[in-house]
Specification:
The protein is α+β, with helices and mostly antiparallel strands. The protein has one helix and six strands; from the N terminus they run H-E-E-E-E-E-E. A hairpin with a 5-residue loop joins strand 4 and strand 5. The N and C termini lie far apart (about 35 Å).
Length: about 80
Amino acid sequence: MRAFFTHLTEKTHEATAMKRRYFVCANGHEGEEVTSGNDELPSSQNELIRTTGIVDNGIDTRGQLRYRCRTGGEPMSETGTS
């Protein structure tokens, strides 16, 4: 059974795409969103979103998550992606 899980992990790793979004607030605090998902199954149910330094603040007009600063609560502005 161990070989099965090793094969499954390798296959999942090959099909996983990651996207990073970077944010900053007016006070200079930085945050990051990392989204990873399975390219073979394009569904929001297959996405995992991890954040650092930011907290959820609803959805913007483009359908993307908005954030506020975890430290001070100010709105975060997106500074770029990778």
